[in-house]
Write a sequence for this structure.
């Protein structure tokens, strides 16, 4: 099939207004939130139902045209970056919540549903959808599935993969497969195909329908903020909380630079002069949380904090979180550009990792702000640079690479929740052996013989488009969303 | 400790040389070991803890390690695998628990085997040693092969090494058994609990004579357990029609769940089948299995039934769209019975990892 025939067939499936081919229409789709990369697709289609998605995938398979599924394009790793001359299948209009079952605590949703919309729809039953990426105001559940996205509150009950029970997907050759169920057991019997599909970054096809698990909203929260004179003591406090046998809902750290940014942006009222603050939040049934809180207080008081704030009401809690969740976009006020990394280290290595990042930051002459999920060792160093300066992006990327290698050396991994995407695929051979990678490629080839689904991502191969700097995600600039 | 690498190499050679390889773990789920073939490799040779840093809340151990050994080490540090792996007393191993996906009553609150397994190393059907996942609790690199191996029945590779995350174990527990006149009454209570903020670690259901018992386990700090129990009792009185409450504490309570997670209720000479379901299908399933001893875990989401024959069950399950796994009591060529889902995807992975069917068919 030549490209003219491909377009003709596409136009038989989609009306003109939902089949974009003109340069001006394609522009908004040329990159995701990793704005340093950019690529022009052949076309963007906007299906309104799953039949159209399936038809588009089948056509791509027949024509051998690569495709990328796209939710809201907030991927930070180049996951939803188009493939040059490939098709973008934009899923935002598949945004129906098809079914809510409060008794079984499940909902069946289409992939384009915005993360937060699920919680909004089930709130009246006292339920919520737990994984809370800080992009949850705009990112889609389909994107969350592709990346196994996490958030600040994933310490106790897990990430996306722990909250998906059933999936209907179209494989890259157009075959439609359903697995899992509305049972809490999910797959239950046979290999856990849900687990395999989640985090596959669009390489195994497109999720068409997703059954999510809902949770009862915690009855109470107890939120403590502790300020430290140095980052290491804050890191040790995390270890002390964990060692005490408590299982908090969230445990987050922000360093001096991140605090400064947050203070400028949202005036969160964090303690002055802190090198680091630790936020610990307990959640759950009232009596249990109150008892745990007594224990937490003891641990925090013995942890070397020089100031401790306890949220006395929901407004104070919200204020603490506003600063934390807004920290990333606030950093935009300190620097015109930044890259964010997402490596994970064993929790006992947090102090060492942070000290080494600080050393690297000095050596490279680049400021690095740290805001991260301390409870699970998931670092988020933000490397600040000025994209207008020739070579600055490359310099920042080089430092980012050193940080990834540091995480590998310390026994961790290159990504906790943002995915490998395009950005980190070249580090995969440092993390996995040749035979590990061969097995992944073999699985990929069986599922996608023509390798058309999100070609060039996740696995180390292919050629990256040239790097060029384009600043923050437009919504980030407006302060609508923030990175975490 | 015996150097294990030569044993791993032996396994690799075996896989490379043989057309069909049978392995066994602890033997606690006989229906799943060697369905017809002769065992060539005993995974218990690959046994022992490799790495455990209590402060890290993770451990790595050989796949053939009996969980009982691991549980004892974890308990010294007040840590545990919250999903209550089954048949610990009978010698179940880490690897066997993964491939059979046998989580017990504790699955209810924090999830099952899949939610705590974070890394694996396995020998695939081509004799390659392959690693999936890692050693940290959060990891988005590579495909999530650890999760894929949960429930895989050993048909995609032989697990060699496993890495897990663990949780702090509650300091105290209480059990409350609430009797209802009917399954419908019990379900009414369970549905009310579903949207309440009351937290419980276990919610089992079991028929008892002509009544139904809601069997709840609650873990937490000792000081507040009495008041939480009181609150739960009040809630159930307000939202359902219980006819009786029975509270259990202390060592007896612990022993009860130990027995429960060894399926001690299963009569001799019966066949134990696990059947996941949405509890809204309970009535339908009950018409098939109501003459057998049975129990439900995870708030009615998993049925465990001890049948005396498998003559009709596969067809009956298929008719109501359910799947079952035969765990003990019979050896079938295919321990998965009833409706199967997702086969086209599973088969593709099979072709990638075990193209020649060294570990049997999918
Ligand atoms: C400001 C900001 C804050 C963020 N905070 C967090 C955070 O706290 N935690 C976190 O984990 N991430 C975070 N992210 C990253 C991002 O939001 C998540 O990765 C999110 O899941 C992406 O969703 P999306 O709808 O934007 O997906 P997209 O970016 O459109 O796509 C992401 C990937 O998913 C694939 N995909 C999309 N839909 C489907 C589908 N239906 N089936 C199969 N594949 C599909 C795409 O091909 C692509 O590979 C943040 C990003 C930004 C910009």
């Amino acid at each position: 099939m030549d490209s003219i025939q491909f377009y003709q067939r596409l136009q038989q499936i989609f009306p003109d207004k939902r089949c974009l081919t003109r340069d001006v229409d394609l522009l908004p789709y040329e990159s995701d939130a990793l704005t340093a990369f950019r690529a022009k697709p052949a076309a963007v289609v906007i299906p309104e139902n799953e039949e159209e998605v399936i038809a588009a995938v089948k056509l791509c398979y027949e024509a051998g045209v690569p495709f990328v599924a796209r939710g809201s394009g907030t991927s930070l790793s180049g996951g939803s970056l188009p493939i040059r001359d490939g098709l973008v299948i934009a899923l935002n209009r598949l945004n129906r919540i098809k079914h809510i079952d409060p008794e079984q605590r499940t909902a069946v949703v289409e992939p384009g549903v915005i993360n937060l919309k699920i919680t909004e729809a089930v709130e009246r039953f006292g339920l919520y959808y737990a994984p809370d990426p800080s992009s949850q105001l705009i990112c889609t559940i389909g994107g969350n599935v592709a990346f196994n996205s996490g958030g600040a509150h994933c310490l106790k009950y897990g990430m996306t993969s722990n909250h998906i029970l059933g999936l209907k997907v179209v494989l890259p050759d157009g075959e439609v497969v359903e697995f899992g169920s509305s049972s809490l057991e999910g797959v239950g019997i046979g290999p856990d195909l849900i687990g395999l599909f989640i985090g596959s970054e669009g390489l195994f096809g497109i999720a068409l329908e997703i059954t999510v698990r809902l949770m009862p909203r915690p009855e109470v929260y107890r939120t403590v903020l502790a300020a430290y004179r140095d980052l290491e003591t804050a890191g040790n406090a995390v270890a002390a909380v964990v060692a005490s046998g408590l299982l908090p809902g969230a445990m987050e750290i922000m360093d001096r630079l991140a605090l400064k940014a947050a203070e400028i942006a949202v005036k969160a009222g964090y303690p002055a002069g802190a090198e680091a603050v630790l936020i610990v939040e307990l959640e759950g049934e009232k009596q249990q949380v109150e008892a745990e809180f007594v224990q937490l207080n003891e641990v925090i008081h013995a942890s070397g904090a020089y100031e401790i704030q306890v949220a006395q009401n929901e407004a104070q809690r919200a204020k603490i979180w506003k600063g934390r969740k807004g920290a990333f976009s606030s950093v935009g006020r300190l620097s015109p550009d930044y890259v964010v990394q997402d490596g994970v280290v064993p929790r006992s290595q947090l102090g060492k990792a942070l000290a080494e990042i600080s050393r690297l930051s000095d050596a490279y002459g680049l400021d690095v702000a740290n805001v991260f999920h301390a409870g699970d060792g998931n670092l988020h160093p933000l490397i600040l640079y000025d994209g207008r300066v020739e070579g600055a992006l490359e310099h920042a990327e080089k430092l980012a690479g050193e940080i990834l290698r540091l995480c590998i050396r310390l026994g961790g991994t290159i990504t906790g929740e943002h995915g490998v995407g395009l950005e980190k695929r070249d580090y995969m051979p440092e993390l996995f052996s040749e035979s590990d990678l061969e097995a992944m490629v073999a699985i990929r080839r069986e599922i996608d013989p023509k390798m058309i689904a999100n070609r060039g991502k996740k696995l180390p191969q292919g050629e990256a488009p040239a790097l060029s700097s384009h600043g923050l995600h437009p919504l980030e600039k407006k302060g609508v969303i923030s990175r975490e | 400790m015996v150097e294990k690498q030569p044993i791993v190499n032996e396994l690799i050679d075996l896989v490379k040389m043989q057309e069909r390889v049978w392995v066994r773990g602890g033997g606690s789920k006989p229906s799943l070991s060697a369905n017809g073939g002769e065992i060539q490799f005993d995974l218990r040779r690959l046994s022992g803890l490799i790495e455990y840093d209590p402060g890290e809340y993770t451990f790595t151990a050989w796949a053939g390690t009996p969980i009982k050994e691991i549980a004892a080490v974890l308990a010294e540090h007040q840590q545990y695998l919250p999903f209550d792996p089954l048949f610990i007393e009978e010698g179940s191993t880490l690897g066997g628990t993964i491939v059979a996906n046998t989580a017990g009553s504790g699955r209810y609150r924090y999830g099952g085997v899949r939610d705590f397994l974070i890394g694996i190393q396995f020998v695939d059907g081509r004799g390659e040693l392959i690693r999936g996942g890692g050693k940290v609790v959060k990891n988005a690199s590579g495909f999530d092969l650890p999760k894929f191996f949960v429930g895989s029945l050993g048909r995609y590779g032989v697990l060699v090494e496993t890495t897990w995350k663990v949780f702090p174990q509650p300091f105290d527990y209480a059990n409350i058994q609430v009797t209802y006149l009917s399954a419908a009454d019990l379900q009414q209570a369970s549905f009310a609990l579903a949207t309440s903020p009351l937290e419980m670690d276990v919610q089992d259901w079991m028929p008892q004579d002509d009544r139904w018992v809601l069997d709840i386990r609650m873990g937490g700090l000792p000081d507040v357990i009495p008041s939480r129990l009181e609150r739960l009792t009040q809630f159930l009185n307000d939202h359902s029609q219980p006819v009786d409450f029975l509270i259990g504490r202390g060592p007896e309570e612990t022993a009860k769940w130990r027995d429960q997670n060894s399926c001690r209720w299963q009569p001799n000479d019966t066949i134990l089948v696990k059947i996941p379901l949405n509890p809204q299908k309970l009535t339908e399933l009950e018409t098939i299995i109501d003459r057998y001893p049975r129990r439900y875990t995870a708030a009615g989401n998993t049925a465990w039934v001890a049948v005396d024959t498998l003559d009709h069950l596969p067809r009956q399950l298929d008719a109501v769209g359910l799947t079952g796994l035969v765990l003990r009591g019979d050896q079938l060529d295919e321990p998965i019975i009833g409706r199967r889902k997702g086969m086209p995807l599973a088969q593709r992975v099979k072709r990638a990892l075990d193209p020649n069917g060294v570990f049997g068919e999918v």
